[in-house]
């Protein structure tokens, strides 16, 4: 019997069509918008620390401080964004966030073309973080709005694939452009954020019902979330993990270029590797981890981060860094959808934005403390990299132990994200 290519083509088309129809169209718009914005952001962010430290001669403590302030600002405004989206709607907050980031990147491009220094550029970098802070927690809340509990691990994986496809392409492009002009780099980043904002505002229908019946905003409402003891403890443990994850940009890039001695182009390839692994293996990983309790997945993911970042301290070549990035990327595709699914499962329908915003606060705090800690360690132990990366990886051990303990406390309705939850 001969192979019937036409029948195979029809079957493949039907399977692809069925897969896309499995989810609300808004998930796919969010995913594509995330891809566009992430590509522009990933072109820029890995090279900001190099711009400041190598090109402008700023100390790593100062660079880490900028990243710390950016992340703290993003943390605060991420919480406010999640709360605001519970009251005024997801679409407005997400769209205006992207348009604001586009404007801030455009201003940075103009300043760099005029030869501006560290202070004004770093100020706008912080502003771009504030403006971008409103997007992620609101997008995560919208995913929970339109996807049933049993499919959330898959849905968050799909969104991450879109974002990391942009992350895979962005640094490779940015590595070449940064050699020519940082100003052009930020100009292209501005254009991608503009496109993402327009997509959201023009093509996404609001998911939050009965907006007119929402109560007025109050900071007291944000504090009420502390009464959810298990969620509070989950956030504390996750802060250790996110501090480790926060080494990926500033600390890793400066160490790779400054200490190991690889070029910025090769650095771009490492970040492209990270994005490519997420794009290729995120969805298969999500199907795999559905079989296990989510806290168990987080324990194993934390252990992989420990191994990956400890190994960075032993790196002497691009090939070794390539292996380290591979381990870290596998850890990432395990922990990120699992961590977001636990939050979505904990939150009530009315307060999804609040919970996502609070968890975004924890995520951002980790990214704030991470570069500051990494910058301090690099400045004071520059000739002893094993001390730098041992200190960082010890936090991954703490998070693994914390998730192990939480696994004995969380109910199955929260701690399972896929197929098994149907039989609870």
Written account of the structure:
The relative contact order is 0.16. This protein has one domain (25-203, 227-423): Growth Hormone, Chain: A. With 424 residues, it is an all-alpha fold. The protein contains 17 helices and no strands. The longest helix has 31 residues, at 25-55.
Features:
single chain; 424 residues; mainly alpha; Growth Hormone, Chain: A; globular; disordered C terminus; 17 helices
Summarize the helices and strands and which ones pair or pack:
Blueprint: H1 5-21, H2 25-55, H3 60-88, H4 90-113, H5 118-132, H6 135-146, H7 152-180, H8 182-203, H9 219-223, H10 229-245, H11 250-260, H12 264-289, H13 294-312, H14 318-346, H15 352-380, H16 385-406, H17 412-415
Helix pairs in contact: 2-7, 2-8, 2-11, 3-4, 3-5, 3-6, 3-15, 4-5, 4-6, 4-8, 6-15, 7-8, 7-12, 7-14, 10-15, 10-16, 12-14, 13-14, 13-16, 14-15, 15-16
Total domains, how many?
1
Low-pLDDT windows of residues: 419-424
The end-to-end distance, rounded to whole angstroms, is: 46 Å
Instruction: Give the overall pLDDT as a whole number.
Output: 82
- Helical coverage, percent range: over 70%
The H/E string reads: HHHHHHHHHHHHHHHHH
- How many distinct beta strands? 0
CATH topology: Growth Hormone, Chain: A
Q: Brief overview, please?
A:
By secondary structure, the chain is mostly helical. The protein contains 17 helices and no strands.
């Amino acid at each position: 019997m001969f192979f019937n290519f036409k029948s195979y083509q029809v079957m493949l088309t039907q399977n692809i069509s069925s897969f896309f129809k499995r989810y609300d169209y808004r998930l796919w718009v969010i995913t594509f918008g995330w891809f566009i914005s992430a590509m522009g952001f990933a072109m820029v962010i890995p090279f900001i620390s190099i711009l400041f430290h190598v090109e402008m001669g700023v100390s790593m403590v100062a660079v880490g401080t900028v990243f710390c302030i950016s992340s703290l600002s993003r943390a605060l405004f991420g919480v406010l964004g999640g709360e605001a989206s519970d009251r005024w709607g997801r679409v407005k907050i997400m769209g205006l966030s992207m348009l604001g980031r586009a404007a801030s990147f455009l201003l940075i491009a103009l300043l760099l073309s005029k030869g501006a220094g560290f202070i004004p550029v770093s100020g706008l970098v912080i502003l771009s973080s504030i403006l971008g802070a409103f997007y992620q927690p609101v997008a995560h809340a919208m995913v929970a709005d339109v996807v049933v509990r049993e499919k959330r691990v898959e849905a968050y994986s799909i969104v991450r694939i879109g974002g990391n496809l942009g992350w895979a392409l962005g640094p490779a492009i940015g590595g070449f452009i940064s050699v020519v002009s940082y100003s052009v780099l930020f100009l292209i980043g501005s254009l991608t954020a503009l496109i993402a904002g327009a997509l959201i505002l023009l093509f996404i229908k609001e998911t939050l019902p009965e907006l007119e019946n929402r109560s007025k905003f109050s900071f007291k409402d944000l504090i009420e979330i502390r009464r959810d003891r298990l969620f509070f403890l989950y956030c504390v443990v996750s802060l250790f993990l996110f501090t480790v994850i926060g080494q990926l940009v500033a600390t890793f890039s400066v160490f790779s270029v400054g200490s190991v001695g690889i070029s910025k182009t090769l650095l771009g390839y490492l970040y492209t590797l990270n994005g490519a692994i997420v794009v290729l293996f995120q969805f298969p990983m999500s199907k795999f981890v559905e079989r296990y309790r989510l806290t168990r997945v987080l324990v194993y993911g934390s252990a992989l981060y420990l191994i990956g970042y400890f190994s960075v301290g032993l790196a002497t070549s691009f090939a070794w860094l390539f292996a380290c990035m591979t381990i870290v990327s596998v850890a990432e595709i395990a922990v990120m959808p699992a961590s977001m699914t636990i939050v979505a499962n904990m939150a009530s329908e009315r307060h999804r934005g609040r919970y996502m915003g609070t968890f975004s606060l924890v995520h951002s705090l980790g990214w704030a403390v991470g570069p500051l800690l990494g910058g301090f360690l690099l400045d004071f132990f520059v000739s002893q990299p094993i001390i730098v990366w041992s200190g960082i990886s010890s936090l991954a051990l703490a998070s693994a132990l914390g998730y192990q303990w939480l696994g004995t406390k969380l109910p199955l309705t929260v701690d399972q994200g896929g197929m098994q939850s149907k039989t609870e």
